[in-house]
Amino acid sequence: MLRLSRFKAYHIISRAMSIRPTFANESLFEPAAFIDGKWVKSAEEYFEVSDPATGEVIATLPDQGVNDVNHAIECASKAFASYKNVPHAKRAQLLRNLYNLMMENVEDLGKLITWENGKPLADAIGEVKYAASFFDWYAGEAVRIYGTTIPVGFTRNRAFTIRQPVGVCGIICPWNFPAAMITRKAGAALAAGCTVVIKPDAQTPLSALALAQLAAKAGFPPGTINVVLTLKRVKEIGLALCKSPLVSKISFTGSTAVGKILAEQSASTLKKLSLELGGNAPLIVFEDADIDQAVDQAIATKFRNLGQTCICANRLYVHRAVIDEFTEKIAAKIRKFKFGHGLQPDVTHGCLINTAAVAKVEAHVEDAIKRGATVVVKGGRMPELGDTFYFPTVLTNVDPEARLTKEETFGPLCAIIPFDSVEQVVEYANNTRFGLASYVFSKNIETIYTVAETLQSGMVSCNTGVFSECPIPFGGIKESGYGREGSLHGIEDYTNIKTIAIGNISRL
Ligand code: SIN
C-alpha cells in the first residue's frame, strides 16, 4: 500500500534570502551588451535581472532594440569576411583557449549560473564543464571539416566538395542552461568559420556576458562573437535576426511555439535553421528492469534542473507488475531532497525559474488529480523558502490522457502511469506531437532494441537517465524540431557543401 506523505515532510536548508556570491574574479561580467569587441552600456531603457530564489535584483542591463541588433549583425558580417579565412588550426586554438579560460573560471561561472538560474552550485559547475566541453570538442572538429572526392560520369570531368562556413549565425538561447546552450551552438559555428550574434534569455544573460569576455581574452577577433540584450523587444529582435539578409542561419533552443514563429519568419530569406524545441519525454520501466537502477536513473532525468530541461522524463510509464515497488522507492528518495538557495551547501535542489513555472506544475497536478491520480507525495509550494520553490509532487495511476501526457510540465511533477504490454506502452509513448528524448529500462536486450527502434524520438536512452554529452548528436523529430547539435554532426548545420567540378581534364 502506498503511503500519502504529509505536506511538510520535506527538507529545507534555510530560508533563501539575500545570498550574494563572492567571485575570485569580480569583473567576470560587465553589465553591458557586447558588440564588435566593445561593451555597450548606453540605451534608452534598461531591464533588471533577478535572483530567482529571492527576487533580488542582481544586475541592470541595457534593453536593446532593432537598431542595436542590426548593428551587431553588420559587425558580425564584417568580421565574417576575415574570420572565415582564419586557418582551421588557428580557430581550433582559439576554441581551446576559450575552453581553458572557462575551466580556469569554473567556480565563478558556476556561481553566476546559480545566481541567475537558481540551480544548485554543484549542478551549475557541472553545467560549466559541460558547456566548456563543446569548445574543446569543436576545437577538435575544426581541423576535420572534410569534403569528398566524387567519381563522376563525365569522363573528362573531376569533381570534389568543400565545406564552407554559412556566414553570420543568430543564436537564440534559453534560461535553463545559461552557458551550455550557447556553447553547444557557438562552438560549432566558430569552428566552422561563422561569426555569431547571441541573444540570451533576459532572465539569465550574465553567463553569456561572462563568456563574451572570456572569448575576447581567448583571442577571438572583434565582431566574431556579439551578445545583444533585451527583455521588452524579444519579438522585434528575433524578427530582425530572421529577416536580415546578412544572417545565414538561426539556431534556437526553446519552446515549440516560438520555434514555429522563427521558422515562419525565416522563410522570406530561406535561412538555415536548427530548432531544438520542446520535449515530452516518456520513460518506460518494463517488469524485468533493475528497479533500483530505474528509480535512480528516473530521478536523474526527471529532477535534473528540477525538471526544467527539454529532455527531462515527463511521463513515467511503469509496468503494472512493478508499479508499487517503483513508486514506493522513488517517493522515498524524493522525500529526502533538500531544498534551498542553490548557493547554500548541501542543497540538492533549488528553485524554479519563476512563478509561472510553479503555476504550470500546479495546473498539471490539479488536472491529473481530477482525472483520478493517486497522490503519493503531495509536495507543493514552499513559501518559507520563497515564491519559486516547489517540493516535488509524486502521483501514480495517472490517466494516460492527462494534460501532462500532452505537454511538458517543465517542473518537479513525477507522474507515474501504469501499462500492461509493450504494444500499449509504445502507443502511449508515441501519442504526442513531440519527439526529443525517450528512456527505456529493461534487462532484455530484445525489448531494449525493438522499443528503441520504434519510439518516435531523436534520442533514446536505455538503462540510464543521463546521456547528453558533447559527442552525442542532440536533437529531435516531429514538433521537437530539427538539426543536430554536438557530435560530429553538429558542425554540418554551420557549413554549406560546395561542389567544384573541373572539366576538360586530359589523360596522359
Ligand atoms: C535542453 O534542455 O535542451 C538541454 C539538455 C541537455 O543538453 O542535456
- Averaged pLDDT: 96
* Secondary structural class: alpha/beta
Query: What is the CATH architecture annotation of the largest domain?
Result: 3-Layer(aba) Sandwich
Low-pLDDT residue intervals, each spanning 5 or more residues: 1-9
Q: Under CATH, the topology of the largest domain is which?
A: Aldehyde Dehydrogenase, Chain A, domain 1
Q: Could you give the distance between the termini?
A: 86 Å
Per CATH, the superfamily of the largest domain is Aldehyde Dehydrogenase, Chain A, domain 1
Domain tally: 2
Strand content bin: 15-25%
Radius of gyration: 24 Å
Helix count equals 13
CATH class of the largest domain: Alpha Beta
Anisotropy-based shape:
globular
Q: What share of the residues lie within helices?
A: 25-40%
Main sheet record: 7 strands, mixed
Sheet with most strands: strand arrangement: 16-19-20-14-13-22-23
List the topology elements.
Elements: E1 11-12, E2 33-35, E3 38-40, E4 46-50, E5 57-62, H1 66-83, H2 88-104, H3 106-117, H4 121-142, E6 149-150, E7 158-165, E8 168-172, H5 180-192, E9 195-199, H6 206-218, E10 225-227, H7 234-243, E11 247-253, H8 256-265, E12 272-276, E13 281-285, H9 291-302, E14 313-319, H10 323-334, E15 338-339, H11 355-370, E16 374-377, E17 380-381, E18 390-391, E19 393-396, E20 413-419, H12 422-430, E21 434-435, E22 437-441, H13 445-454, E23 459-462, E24 477-478, E25 481-482, E26 495-502
Parallel strand pairs: 1-15, 8-9, 8-11, 9-10, 11-12, 13-14, 13-22, 14-20, 19-20, 22-23
Antiparallel strand pairs: 2-3, 4-5, 6-7, 7-26, 12-25, 16-19, 17-18, 21-24
Helix pairs in contact: 1-7, 2-4, 2-5, 2-6, 3-4, 4-5, 9-10
The structure holds succinic acid.
